[in-house]
Amino acid sequence: MAWSEINRDAWTKNFLTELFKGARIPLDQTEGATMSFFKVETTGDCALSVKPGKEPRPMFELRIELDWNVEQPVDNGKSIAEAKGHITVTEFSSEAITEPQMQLRCDNKLPPGATPAFQGLVDKLNAAVKESGLPEVSRMLAEDYVSELKRQRP
After folding, report:
1. Contact (CB, 8 A) for 15 and 145
2. What pLDDT, on the 0 to 100 scale, is given for residue 92?
3. Which residues contact residue 39 at a Cβ distance below 8 angstroms, ignoring those fewer than 6 apart?
4. Entry pTM
5. I want to staple 133 with a disulfide (CB 3.0 to 4.6 A). Which of 44, 69, 85, 129 is the partner?
6. What are the residue boundaries of the Activator of Hsp90 ATPase AHSA1-like N-terminal domain, all occurrences included (predicted)?
7. What is the mean pLDDT of each run of 10 residues along the chain (154 residues)?
């Protein structure tokens, strides 16, 4: 029997939106900061090749736009410092599952009256996104997404 291809474009968009919007990523090197995502846009193609008795083969080439937010409790938890930005997964494909190509952009616009100490905190949060957040996004794609995609049988 030949391989058959099952389109998983709609499933992929829904799954990735739920995966990222439901994520709360603790960031190392901070005092309890967490990263979350408030906008997820996925474009590209995804299919699953299946053949009875064989392991399903995912085939995809995706571009993913993620708007992120980091919240850090400050002043003994009385208020929250925020940092925002954008991750573009420029290329995530079944040819290089463990190496999605990503670009990080941090919004460094400070609120009026922000002190130099606040700038230092925002810089620290942005660095934590680079050091902890990006690897976790990569892991979520390579492990969570791909393993769930392989379970999508007709």
Report:
1. yes
2. 97
3. 65, 66, 67
4. 0.92
5. 129
6. 7-151
7. 90 98 96 96 95 89 98 85 95 96 91 78 94 97 96 76
Q: Residue 154: how many CB atoms within 10 A of its CB? A: 6
Question: Cα dist. 125→30, 72, 149 in Å?
Answer: 7, 8, 32
Adjacent-strand bridge partners of 84: 69, 107
The DSSP element (H or E) to which 16 belongs, if any, is helix 9-21
Sign of the torsion angle spanned by Cα atoms 133, 139, 145, 151: negative
* Alpha-carbon span 73 to 128, nearest angstrom: 15
The amino acid that residue 110 corresponds to is: L
Residue 6: closest CA among 60, 42, 44, 54: 60
Whole-number pLDDT of residue 112: 75
| Residue 101 confidence (pLDDT) | 97
Which helix (H) or strand (E) segment holds residue 137: the answer is helix 134-139
Taking the CB of residue 39, how many other CB atoms lie within 10 A of it?
13
Q: What is the pLDDT of residue 52?
A: 84
Report the DSSP pairing between strands 25-26 and 101-107.
Answer: unpaired
What's the CA gap between 33 and 66, in Å, rounded? 18
